[in-house]
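Protein in question passed on here:
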Amino acid sequence: MNWDYSLFDAIQLMIPIFCFFMTMSVVIIYLFLYKNFHNKIYSTGFLFSLTAMFFVFFESLLIIYGWLGLYEEGRIFHFAGQMTASYFMFTLLMFSSALMEKATLISKAVEKMAYIGLGAAVLLTVVSLIKPELFISLSEASDIAQLTPGNFARGKEGILLSVRDLVMGFCIFVLVIMSAISIVINKANIKTILIAFGNFIATFTAIDDLIFFHFGHSFYLNGFRFSRLSVGLSFMSFIIIIAILVDYIMTQNRLNDTHDILQSTHKKLQLSEQKYRHLAEGVDQAVFSLSKDYKFLSYNKKASQYFHLAKEEIDLSFPDLLGKFSNIENKGVSRQILLENLRQLSSEKESAFFHSVINDPRTGEPEELEFHIDYVDSDDGEIEYICRAEKMKANRLIRCIEQEKLQLSIENYIIAIDDVTTRLTSALNKYMDSGSSLMIKMGLQEIIINAIEHGNLNITFEEKSQALKENRYLDFIRERQVDPLYKDRMVRIDYVLNSDYVQYLVRDEGVGFDYKSTMRMVDHSVEQEFMTHGRGINMTRVLFDKVEYNSKGNQVLLVKNFKE
């Protein structure tokens, strides 16, 4: 067959080859982006551009073999190219779904359509391999007039190709709709405008090719035959990758800006942390933080001194560590007050204030500390407690008190004991040394806790021993506190202070007890069995000059003389 090697013929030959290398470069870029960032847009873009590249590749071979007069071999490439275009329906919809990240429902619907398209493409492949003439004949030439040698190798189109074209037309329609929605959702940013423009080019060229295949003419350049869709897909891939690269560059710029901000913030945080450490180390307070299970997270030098925070002890919880270094005479009460404060802090998530007695790390003498604990709940759900502890400060007003008389009524809550005894012993430092007044406070605490536990809540000596042994004593107390038989009972305290003595009259609303027999039992049991909750009664007899119970046993008078 004779034809002239005109410029137009050369262009028709070069266009698909150029488009092949264009799409191949796009495939390589997508592969690089996905390898480094594992984004769904890059993976589906890779598949989309890969099918486009193979379609253009087979179209290029079809044209070359047509020019060489190898028509039978050329029809194989025609068949392979159109079959690739069938899979292109699947990858195109997958890519469209990935672009619609914000429109979740639409994105999922299009993704399902993509998988339906994949199933249809697989079915089409199987049927076409069994009976090729239903798709593209490998033996008969196309009925459409061949305008250039590059088209002489096209096979005769079958009914399945027409069905495929209808489905592809629907996919193109979906693509156009998705592009329009994407522009609206993303507020017409440069990325979505470029992608929409690429989609428009591919749509227009696909429609032009479909019209030619079914009606024998195109919208434009009818005398100049080449695969419009090959050009459209190539330019679409190229424009989309430009859009994605522009978005990638803009994202990188934003990340660089964010990185600079984070670095600046990190430096500020480091500086703030250094300042905090200097402040924390410089104050005459123990400053430390606890985890939600009361383990030490951080602490300053003062806290390390108070609580002996050696490496082997840092894994202990705060209550255990405080109990370990608390004054032995008051360890049980201190631990109960501490645990009750921590329980209330965890439930109410507010600040807690309490006092506890520990042995001074230098002298070994008992020293009272005032604790302030704040609950911190971060955005990520982590719970932390920020704590401060310092020596009790003298109240200037206390020095002005000559005499004082007070009546108090308290409910059956362990947490109240610390506040009450602090108030009732705060003025003692005017008449005695701090160590002696601290011991008076500890003895008063023992009496009040006995009035609550054994008096108002009717907890027997044996019940308390068993509950402590089973490590469930606080829960046991809470059960009694809400029991209708005991919940309304009160402990009443009459307090008198003058320059000669301090007097406390403590009475509960319980049934009382046999004071004398209990004293004999306590004398024997506490010394022989070292029980932690029997020492309080003995302690008061040592600390106070007068310890006098009424006949019922629900009232005790404590007197401490300041003058011999």
Notes: The first helix runs from residue 7 to 37. The two ends are 138 Å apart (CA to CA). Residues 295 and 315 are 7 Å apart (CA to CA). The mean pLDDT is 78.
